[in-house]
Amino acid sequence: MYANSVDAAYYRSRSPHPQIVGTLLRFRGATPGLGLLRDHFAAHLAEQPVLRQRLEDVGGRTCRVPAEMRTENHVRHHAAPSGRTWGEVADALHTLPLPPPPAAPWDVWLADGHRADEWLLFFRSHHALTDGTGRAHLITSLFGSAPPPGPPVSRGGFSLRCAVRLLTDAVTGLFPGPAAAPAWRWLYGPASGSSRLTCVSLPYERLSQVGRAAGVTTNDVYLAAMAGVLRRLALDRGCGPDELGDLPVSMPMSTRRAGEESRPGNHLTMARVLLPCHLSDPLGRLVRVHRATTRAKRQGRAATSRFLQEHVPHRISEAVTRALMDARTAPVSCNYVPYREPELSFDGSRVLDVTSVGALMDGHLLYTALTYHRSVARLAVVHDAVLPDAARVGHLWTEQIDALLGATGAGTHTGSGALAPPKARTR
Predict the structure, then answer these.
(1) SS3 at position 337
(2) C-alpha count within 13 angstroms, C-beta hemisphere, residue 379
(3) pLDDT digits (tens, 9 = 90+) for 325-342
(4) Which one of 144, 228, 254, 274 is most buried, by most CB atoms within 10 A?
(5) Quick one: CA dihedral 23, 26, 29, 30, positive or negative?
(6) Segments of the chain scoring below 50 in pLDDT
(7) pTM (predicted TM-score)
(8) DSSP code of 347?
(9) In whole angstroms, what is the distance from residue 89 CA to residue 325 CA?
(10) Torsion angle of C-alpha atoms 356, 131, 351, 123, degrees rounded to 10
C-alpha cells in the first residue's frame, strides 16, 4: 500500500528532531500491572491496522508494509523518580527511541513512582503512522467507547482559487518574507536536535467563556493568545513595538471524511495563518485571527488539498507538502486536537486529562498543541534547546487567556454573538 505525500514527508523528514508524536493520559489510583496493559493492546491489534504497520521505501515510493508485532517490545514500564511532576516525567520520555524496524514504530509507556496516587500512559508513534485526528480516534477506541464520526469534508469541494493559494504559500514561503524580519529571526535555526517538553493546564471553561462572549471558536482563542505570547517574547528580546509585524504560523487542517477516523496515515493539510503580533490590543488580535481562520475554512482548503494529494503525481505532491511544512513558510506550528469522548478509563481508573504532544519539523524551533478533555484544557509546548525562553510560553499563554477574558467581558460583545470592532486603546 502506497503511503500518501504527507506520510512520505514525515517519513523522509530532514529535521534533526525525531518525528515522534504522542498522547499522554494521566490517571488517579493504583497502577495496573504491565501484563494487563500488554494483554489489552494485544486484544485490540486486529481492529487497529495502524498498530500493525511500518513505512518502507520500495521502488522509489514510500509504502506501508506489515510490521513485526511483539507487545513486550511496544508496551513498557518506566519507574519515575519519586517527587517528579508528571510534566517532568513526560519530558524525560517524549524523545526516547521508538522500536526499530522490522517492528512498528510506536510504543506506550506505563509510568509511575513519581506520586503514590498517580500514574501515566504515554502512547507515542512516528508521525508517519498517523495524524492527531487518527491518534485521538485510536486512544478513544482503546480507552473509551466507539467515537462518533467526525465532521465531513466535502467530496466535490475542489477550488482552483484555493489550489493557486496553496501553491503560492508553498513557493513564496521559501523566500524571505514577514517571518524573516528582524523581529522574528530568533525563531529560526539552526536547530540543536535536542528538545524540551513543557505543559500547562487550565479550566476549559475559561476558553469557552471567551469564545461565547466574542462569537469565535476555541481554536481562535488559542491562536489569539499565542499571538500575544509571541509578541511578548519578541518585546522581551529587545524588539521595539513598531518593528513587529504579522507572524505566519502553520495550522494543521484535517482532510478526513466522516467515517475515516480510523484510517491509517496523515490526512491533513497546512493552513498558513498570519498572527497579528503587532497589535497591542488582545481583542484586536482575536478579531484578526477569527477573520483569518474563517477565510481559510471558506476557501475549501481541506477538500482542495485532498483532491490534489490524490490526483497530482506523488513527487510533486510530496514537494508541495514539504514546502508547506518548512519553517520558511511558517516558523511556528500550532495544533488543536480536542478529545470529545466524555469518559476514558483503564482497569477502573478514570483519565483525569489528556495531553497531545507534537514534533519539531524541519527548521522549526517551536511547536504548540492545545488539547481538551472533559473540563481540562492542556497546552503542550515542544521547543528546541536553542530557544530556552520558549519554556515561558505556557505561563505567558495562560496570562493571555486572562487578558482575553478581561477584554471580552468589558462590553465588546454584541447581542448577535458576533465580534464588535475593538475599541481604540493606547499602548
Answers:
(1) strand
(2) 32
(3) 888 889 999 999 999 878
(4) 228
(5) positive
(6) 153-156, 410-427
(7) 0.89
(8) T
(9) 29
(10) -90
